[in-house]
Amino acid sequence: LFSLADEMSESMDAQFGVCQGKIMASLFFEPSTRTRLSFETAMHRLGGRVITASDVGATSLAKGESIADMARVVGSYADIIVIRHPWEGAAKVVADYAGIPVINAGDGGHEHPTQALCDLYTIKKERQTLKGLKIALWGDLKYGRTIHSLIFTLARFGITILFRPGPGLEIPEHVIRKLTTEYGGELKRYEALDQAVKGGLLPLDAIYMTPSSPHQLAMMPDISIQVELKTGVDALYVT
Q1: Separation CA 39–CA 49 (nearest Å)
Q2: Which are the contacts of 204, defined by CB distance < 8 A and separation ≥ 6?
Q3: Rounded to the nearest 5°, which phi and psi values hold at 29?
Q4: Could you give the CA distance from residue 105 to residue 91 in angstroms, rounded to a whole number?
Q5: What GO annotations for molecular function exist for this entry (predicted)?
Q6: Domain regions of the chain by residue span
Q7: 224 Cβ partners below 8 Å, 6+ apart?
C-alpha cells in the first residue's frame, strides 16, 4: 500500500480519470477539516464526483431513520462511502448494509484507521524503515481514536510502544485485551521514566502526542525535561 502511495504521488497527473464515472458519498456527522477535505480532494483529483451530507438534522436520521436504512439508500446512490459518526461502531453498521465499500473516517472514541495509515506512512518516510522502531504514545490514550488504531498498526509491524497517558486518560482495557490476544503484544509496566530507560525503551524514534484539547497539554508529562534533555532523544513529533 505504501509503495503504491509513493508511485501515485510521483505521477499525480497520470492518476486523473482513475475514478471517472464513480461517485463517493462523503458522510461527515462530526466536525472535520483535514480528513473530510483529504477524501473529497482525492476523489476529485482522480476524476470522480462527490455527494455529501454533514448535518444529521438535515437527513432522514433526524426523522428516526436507522443507520442501516440510511446505508442501504446511500449505497444505491454511490460507489463508495466515507463516513465519520459520533457513535462507536457506526462505520461497521454502514459497511454491513451499504452493499458497497465503506471507509471509516472515525467512529466516536473507537478508531480512526485511515489516520493510523497516514501516521505510519509519515513515520516510515521520515525514518526510512519501520523495523526496530520505538515510539511513545503520549496524552489522551483513552478517548483518542487515532491512538487506538495506531496501537494495532504499530503492533502489526512489531514496533515497541511506550505508553505515557495523561492523568485519567489511560488506555481502555478492551484495547489492551485486543493488543495482547490478537496481536501478541507483551506488556511491561514501569512506575517511572528511569525504569523505562533501564528497560531499554529509550531513546525513542518518534513521539505521538494526542491532547483532546489544547489545555490538556498542561496535563501531559514534560517531554523536554524528562525525555529530550535527559536522554538526548532524536524524536519525530506527530500530533
Answers
A1: 11
A2: 134, 135, 136, 162, 227, 233, 235
A3: -100, 15
A4: 8
A5: amino acid binding; carboxyl- or carbamoyltransferase activity
A6: 2-107, 113-238
A7: none
Pull the grid cell for residue 54. 454533514
- Topology, domain 113-238: Rossmann fold (3.40.50)
Q: Say how many C-beta atoms besides its own lie within 10 A of residue 205's C-beta.
A: 20
pTM: 0.77
Give the separation between CA 104 and CA 107, rounded to whole angstroms. 7
Instruction: Of 107, 112, 67, 119, give the one whose Cα is nearest residue 236.
Output: 119
For the domain with range 2-107, which CATH number is right: 3.10.450.50, 3.40.980.10, 3.40.50.1370, 3.40.50.200? Answer: 3.40.50.1370
pLDDT of residue 223 exceeding 50, the answer is no
Interval 113-127: pLDDT, tens: 999 999 999 889 888
Using N-to-C axis directions, what is the helix angle for 2-9 and 113-127, rounded to 10°? Answer: 70
Q: Which residues contact 236 (CB under 8 A, 6 or more apart)?
A: 123, 126, 127, 205, 206, 207
Question: Exposure of 78 by Cβ count < 10 A (0-12 exposed, 13-18 middle, 19+ buried)?
Answer: buried
State which H helix or E strand residue 196 sits in.
helix 193-198
Do the domains 113-238 and 2-107 match in fold? Answer: yes
